[in-house]
């Protein structure tokens, strides 16, 4: 190995500075809460869509961790959650104090400040710092789902944990590549259901309860109590889902009573906001007709999604995998007592996913399979 030359600093007796390094450059940021935050780990603040103001103080420090007189523009971020304001703050004489507002914080939430914006004749140092954790409660299923825009949701893109402790969150249907869960402590059909995408048939994982460890080998069943649910919050074709999930069930041995189907009429089916509230719930359309016009069947050959006329409004059903003996095209023009299934959306098209033959008016036996997510259609 080649020997490196001694630093010039060592040749200058008594000099302790390293040549080429300015001790008066922004090296650290110190972030403190100017006021105590009301939430704690033991008693967290409420998860909310309303802006929560947080009083913060930021101080620039040099390499010796001493206050530094510098003017700089800092970027502001929050994780997890959504920043309401401001997106930037200006250090003046090395300091800034003010209020940062955020929404949808959950668990330990932190405010980030970063010197990553050039300006005023200076280059950014890329120094960053975060606040102490701001403790918020976890969101319920309904709080994850509730939205004014049915093609997104408040936590989209976040790795989220859903609040299940102390709540009756149960499996309401099991599919070929996922499961549906419902929070029974909230009103039926009020954003309280969610689809969990597991890629393959869901595997049962027992909560760590000692004597119940032998249950780990059984299949997930309707009525299983959810003890843990985390994963990436996504909008798949405008349907909210948790993907890449971690979940635990039990130790409740007696399956709960699954919620009954929620009946929809033409008025509900034609109202995207009303249908959004029902997303991932079991819904039933009664006294319906299977249309005969070609326009209603335009996507059937490619997506196996067949039309259901509720009397002025049309929804679709996808049953090829779960009720293979039912050939929808052979029943055009017929009236059915009901069609029901788990409700999903594909870009504003509402689709019922029947679970078995009993979900289509009468009885068509023959090898039903677990439902899967609807196949994607092009965005209209």
Quick summary:
By secondary structure, this protein is mainly beta. It has helices at 8-11, 141-145, 266-269, 272-278, 300-303, and strands at 28-33, 52-61, 72-79, 82-85, 88-91, 95-103, 107-114, 128-130, 134-136, 159-161, 169-174, 178-183, 193-197, 226-236, 239-249, 262-264, 282-289, 305-309, 314-318, 335-346, 349-353. The protein starts with 7 loop residues before the first helix and ends in a 27-residue tail after the last strand.
Which short descriptors sum up this protein?
380 residues, OB fold (Dihydrolipoamide Acetyltransferase, E2P), six-stranded mixed beta sheet, 5 helices, 21 strands, 6% helix, disordered N terminus
How would you explain this protein's 3D organization?
- The structure is a single chain.
- The strands form four sheets. A six-stranded mixed β-sheet has the order 10-14-15-13-12-11. The chain has a six-stranded mixed β-sheet with strand order 16-17-20-21-19-18.
- Strand 11 and strand 12 (178-183) form a beta hairpin.
- With 380 residues, it is mainly β.
- Helices cover 6% and strands 36% of the residues.
- The chain is elongated and about 80 Å long.
- It folds into three domains: 22-136, Immunoglobulins (Immunoglobulin-like); 141-249, OB fold (Dihydrolipoamide Acetyltransferase, E2P); 262-359, OB fold (Dihydrolipoamide Acetyltransferase, E2P) (Beta Barrel).
- It has helices at residues 8-11, 141-145, 266-269, 272-278, 300-303; strands at residues 28-33, 52-61, 72-79, 82-85, 88-91, 95-103, 107-114, 128-130, 134-136, 159-161, 169-174, 178-183, 193-197, 226-236, 239-249, 262-264, 282-289, 305-309, 314-318, 335-346, 349-353.
- The termini are far apart.
């Amino acid at each position: 190995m080649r020997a490196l030359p001694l630093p010039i600093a060592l040749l200058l007796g008594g000099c302790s500075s390293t040549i080429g390094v300015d001790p008066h450059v922004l090296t650290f940021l110190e972030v403190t809460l100017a006021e105590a935050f009301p939430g704690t780990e033991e008693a967290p603040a409420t998860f909310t869509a309303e802006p929560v103001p947080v009083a913060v103080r930021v101080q620039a420090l040099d390499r010796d961790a001493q206050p530094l007189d510098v003017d700089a523009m800092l970027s502001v971020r929050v994780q997890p959650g959504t920043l309401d304001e401001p997106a930037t703050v200006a250090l003046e004489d090395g300091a800034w104090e003010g209020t940062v507002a955020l929404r949808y914080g959950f668990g330990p939430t932190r405010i980030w400040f970063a010197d990553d914006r050039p300006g005023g004749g200076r280059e950014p140092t890329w120094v960053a710092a975060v606040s102490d954790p701001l403790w918020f409660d976890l969101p319920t299923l309904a709080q994850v789902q509730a939205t004014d825009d049915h093609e997104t949701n408040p936590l989209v893109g976040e790795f989220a944990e859903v609040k299940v402790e102390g709540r009756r969150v149960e499996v309401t249907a099991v599919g070929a590549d996922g499961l549906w869960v419902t929070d029974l402590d909230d009103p039926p059909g009020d954003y309280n259901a969610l689809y969990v995408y597991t890629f393959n048939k869901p595997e049962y994982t027992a909560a760590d309860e000692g004597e119940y460890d032998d249950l780990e080998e059984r299949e997930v069943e309707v009525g299983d109590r959810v003890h843990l649910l985390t994963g990436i919050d996504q909008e798949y074709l405008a349907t909210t889902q948790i993907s890449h999930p971690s979940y635990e069930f039990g130790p409740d041995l007696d399956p709960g009573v699954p919620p009954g189907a929620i009946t929809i009429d033409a008025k509900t089916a034609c109202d995207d906001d009303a249908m959004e509230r029902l997303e991932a719930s079991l819904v039933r359309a009664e006294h319906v007709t299977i249309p005969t016009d070609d326009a209603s069947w335009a996507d059937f050959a490619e997506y196996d999604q067949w039309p259901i006329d509720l009397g002025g409004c049309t929804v679709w059903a996808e049953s090829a995998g779960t009720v293979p003996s039912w050939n929808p095209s052979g029943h055009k023009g017929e009236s059915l007592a009901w069609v029901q299934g788990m409700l999903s959306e594909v870009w504003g098209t509402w689709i019922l996913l029947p679970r078995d033959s009993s979900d289509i008016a009468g009885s068509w036996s023959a090898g039903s399979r677990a439902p899967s997510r609807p196949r994607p259609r092009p965005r209209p």
